[in-house]
Amino acid sequence: MGRILGLDYGAKTVGVAVSDPLGITAQGVETIHRKSENKLRQTLARIEELVRDYDVETIVLGLPVRLSGEIGDRAVKTLEFREMLERRTGRRIIMWDERLTTVAADRVLDEAKVARTDRKEVIDMLAAVFILQGYMDSLALSGHSESDAGE
């Protein structure tokens, strides 16, 4: 069974997390930075490398739905990114409601007493960990494994 990659897609960063080989825990990998929102070639190339390096079978991409449940501009851009990812990686992409993951990540950093100035380097990666862990926990609760999810 391949691993699962979790992504928190933002305007200029993508937080990246990966599952352990058993698909139980999510670990932060890195935050990919880009100079402007529409410059995605290097970002997609880096994700392709990570898919190969970690033998990734599935990608979980956080969908930033508004608290009201509506799809806003950021979610539309994320869905467009999903299409690019599917084309580039050939992997199945699971969209995961990421509402409040950045809030949760910020709270963890508060509790860890991480200075506000040091947070921007890790907050997107930590949000990706929350996205991926939420997805994997939902699989465990439903009694499904990654291989039969989505069937």
Describe the structure.
It is built from five helices and five strands. A hairpin with a 3-residue loop joins β1 and β2 (13-19). The protein has a single domain (3-146), classed as Nucleotidyltransferase, domain 5. It has helices at residues 41-53, 73-89, 101-111, 116-119, 123-142, and strands at 3-9, 13-19, 26-33, 56-63, 92-97. It is 43% helix and 24% strand.
Brief write-up:
This protein has 151 residues and is α/β, with parallel strands linked by helices. It has five helices and five strands; from the N terminus they run E-E-E-H-E-H-E-H-H-H. Helix 1 (41-53) packs across helix 2 and helix 3 (101-111) crosses helix 5.
Helix/sheet category: alpha/beta
Find the count of extended strands (DSSP E, 2+ residues). Answer: 5
Shape: globular
Report the sheet with the most strands, covering strand number, pairing sense and barrel closure: 5 strands, mixed
- pLDDT < 50 runs, ≥5 residues: none
CATH class: Alpha Beta
Percent range for helical residues? 40-55%
- Mean pLDDT comes to 87
How far the N terminus sits from the C terminus, by CA atoms, comes to 16 Å
Radius of gyration in whole Å, from Cα?
15 Å
SS element count, helices: 5
CATH architecture level-2 label: 2-Layer Sandwich
The arrangement of helices and strands along the chain is EEEHEHEHHH
Strand content: 15-25%
Q: Assign the CATH superfamily.
A: YqgF/RNase H-like domain
Order of strands in the sheet with the most strands?
A: 3-2-1-4-5
State the domain count.
1
SSE topology:
Blueprint: E1 3-9, E2 13-19, E3 26-33, H1 41-53, E4 56-63, H2 73-89, E5 92-97, H3 101-111, H4 116-119, H5 123-142
Parallel strand pairs: 1-4, 4-5
Antiparallel strand pairs: 1-2, 2-3
Helix pairs in contact: 1-2, 3-5
